[in-house]
Amino acid sequence: MEQDGQPNEHGDILTQYERFINPGLARALRFMGLTEVEYSGHGAVVVTEAGEEYIDCAGGYGVFIAGYLHPRIVARARDQISKIALSSRVLLNRPMVELAQELARLTPGDLQYSFFCNSGTEAVEAALKFSRIQTGRSRIISTSGAFHGKTFGALSVSGRDTYRQPFTPLVPEVVHVPYGDSDALAAVIDDKTAAVIVEPIQGEGGIMVPPDSYLPNIRELCDKTGALWIADEVQTGLGRTGRLFAVEYSGVVPDYLCLAKALGGGIMPIGAVIGRPDAWTFFDSQPLIHTSTFGGNPLACAVAHETLHVITEENLPQRAAKLGAWFLAALSELQARYPRVLTAVRGRGLMIGLEVPQPGVGGAIMAELFQRHILAVYTLNNERVIRLIPPLVITQDQLQQVLTALDDVFGIVDTQVEDLVQG
Ligand SMILES: Cc1ncc(COP(=O)(O)O)c(C=O)c1O
């Protein structure tokens, strides 16, 4: 057994990654100097085996909305695990139905029914299948740059060829239109369309905020044609953007809303699709048409329920709105000072993207930030954007430390920017 980061008979931990996990990933991590081993965490800080603390602006790709090991969520997990963790799937499951009731209460409009699974991609798979069976249609419209997961259905509606191409043929009858462009959607949506799947703000696409009219237009076009709207809030959901759900900014209600990531409170994997009654009638005659053995397990549901209480009682969406506005303004000032390094700053709440002229510039920035004990990662479908999605419990003081570090790093990278862009 390896202890305290010490090598065992298989070498250091990256060598073990190389031998037992993924050689290519191990090489990339070594190249980027990412050799520290995570051990624990508290609030917005992750602690390594060596006892070093890092401010986490990558937030586990968005799962740590309530921070690492929130005491109330951990306590609820301990309590539930001491009773029943996984479901018999024959007897009735109280934590699951309590979570579903709370989601029906908190989600906008008449979203009411929940299906539970274990990840974001599974939530998307379920919503795609639901839209097909509910409408009896097969066509799905998605957007360029979208990220919905990496299983076949979710990959088919995602928008980056690098991840799609090696797995073709994908699910047929999927059409991609430019994100944020209502006219492009209007040109392709018709009475054969089962669903339009859209993130309220594209996360992995590069933190793309659409025009205010976009989501209302999607709603209207879906209503006109009888298509269903799937809002993928796997990344934007549960307070990240300054509202509990990002669709709330638009005042319109999707037919299906997908959640995952933050719903598990930074403790458990869980995904969910919440649907309107009119989009859920297919279950009436076929209650087992879509199922998941682990989905809705009492442990994950108890944790998710407590997470919803923590998010609402600690006013985390409001906190994200307030801190985010301040942080975004300060980042825009940095952009004005370092326009060659930082070409755009955008986002909403604590979902912020820093656009750089070229991925190499982003790589240099992330490496320098890491040296200063700050974690940040680029968005998966757009390597020119570094995403900052810290836990919403992050303090203003910690965000100030991030700003100070960025100021320092931009100053250094500014002197290298020509070489980086050419190289
Ligand atoms: C908007 C969105 N949908 C779906 C997913 C897939 O989630 P998972 O990685 O849990 O399958 C992600 C992951 O980043 C996401 O950002």
3D structure, described in words:
The protein is built from 15 helices and 15 strands. With about 425 residues, the protein is of the alpha/beta class. The chain folds into two domains: about 45-65 and about 315-420, Aspartate Aminotransferase, domain 1; about 70-315, Type I PLP-dependent aspartate aminotransferase-like (Major domain) (Aspartate Aminotransferase, domain 2), CATH 3.40.640. The strands form three sheets. A seven-stranded mixed sheet has the order 4-10-9-8-7-5-6, with helices on both faces. A four-stranded mixed sheet has the order 1-2-3-13. A four-stranded antiparallel sheet has the order 11-12-15-14, with helices on one face. Helix 5 (about 95-105) packs parallel to helix 12, helix 13 packs across helix 15 (about 395-420) and helix 14 crosses helix 15 (about 395-420). The longest helix has 27 residues, at about 395-420. It is globular and about 65 Å long. It binds pyridoxal-5'-phosphate. Pyridoxal-5'-phosphate binds near residues 119 and 149. Pyridoxal-5'-phosphate binds near residues 119, 148, 199, 204 and 235.
